[in-house]
Amino acid sequence: MSRHLEATIEIFPIVGLFTISRGSKSEAEVITCTMTENGFSGRGECVPYRRYGETVEGVLANITAMAGAIENGLTRLDLQANMKPGAARNAIDCALWDLEAKRSGQRVAEMIGATSTKPLVTAFTLSLGTPEAMAEEARKNAARPLLKIKLGTEDDESRMRAVAEGAPNARIIVDANEGWTPGNLLRHMEIAAEVGVALIEQPLPAGKDAELAKIRRLVPVCADESVHATGDLAALADRYDAVNIKLDKTGGLTGALAMKKEAQRLGFSIMVGCMVGTSLAMAPAVLLAEDAAYADLDGPLLLARERENGLRYEGSLVYPPEADLWG
After folding, report:
1. Are 145 and 139 spatial neighbours (Cβ–Cβ below 8 Å)?
2. Active site residues
3. In what order do the strands lie in the sheet with 3-20?
């Protein structure tokens, strides 16, 4: 076996600013992991996230620290025991999946039973802004069937009403990014129900979300920051109706598949989400999302520049990856 691991930092500009309740950014910093073996090459991409204590430099160091083990034949299953969930493991895990597919001539979709060639409807994200700015963005994207709006302010009522009015035919997901409080939770949920919001994502801070078990949830609520690994799920069953599975949280497709299976067993609806990254990061998530209730895989649509041979998007439809991209 002659296996080699390389990891590089790449920067992709975002169209305008991407703003959530915790701040704004104008570019996506990603780490691309490339694994070569006997003439075959596999790739994976991750997006380090400061909310979870990750930095680009730290994640890059964690990936390169695994080079010796990878070159000595570390498998995907070994990887689960040797690295904690997170962005670094995601890049390596997905590169291993891609390498295995290239070596065997079998697509990852076949390996995991995701054989549909039909496109998925992905949510399209509207950044947090003034009610007027969000209404304008909603009008521009009113033809999209599913919008996700970033909230997390003391006055999200006006923003929800503005978006609902601007895109009256779209289903709407509200993502508060932990920005609501027990004091305004019920009021915001009442408004969400009134304007027809389909799902509320992570309204309260992780670890401080017990209030969700004490109220009648007028709109289904989805866990994001509150759920990272499969072991987190059981404790959330009384307060959430759905979970957002992201490969950068689970540490790759291997962990995400396990989390999805357990979440379904526990009765959660599934959203498959993403950080702001390129098609290389979205590709395995598209396969994971084949039968999910919600796909939120619009990262490339938010970028000013994409990778070559990226995913095929038609409006809000995203197609499974071709082999020259991943898997």
Report:
1. no
2. 150, 246
3. 3-20, 23-37, 40-46
Does the annotation place 93 within a ligand binding site?
no
- The Cα-based distances of 289 to 21, 257, 264, 277, 312 in angstroms read 26, 10, 13, 17, 16
3-state secondary structure of 58: helix
The pTM for the full model equals: 0.96
Q: Do the beta carbons of residue 230 and residue 258 sit within 8 Å?
A: yes
Report how far apart, in Å, the C-alpha atoms of 240 and of each of 4, 194, 224 are: 42, 20, 10
Q: Which residue has the tokens 């508060």?
A: 176
pLDDT, position 40 = 96
Domains, the chain, in order of start with CATH, read 3-105 (3.30.390.10), 112-318 (3.20.20.120)
Q: What is the rounded distance in angstroms from the CA atom of residue 206 to the CA atom of residue 128? A: 20
pLDDT in tens, 242-294: 999 999 999 999 999 999 999 999 999 999 999 999 999 999 999 999 999 99
Pairwise CA distance, residues 284 & 327, whole Å: 8
Say if residue 1's pLDDT is above 60: no
The torsion angles phi and psi of 171, rounded to 5 degrees, stand at -75, 145
First to last CA, the chain: 21
Cα–Cα distance between 83 and 21 in angstroms, integer?
30
- Helix H or strand E encompassing 241: none
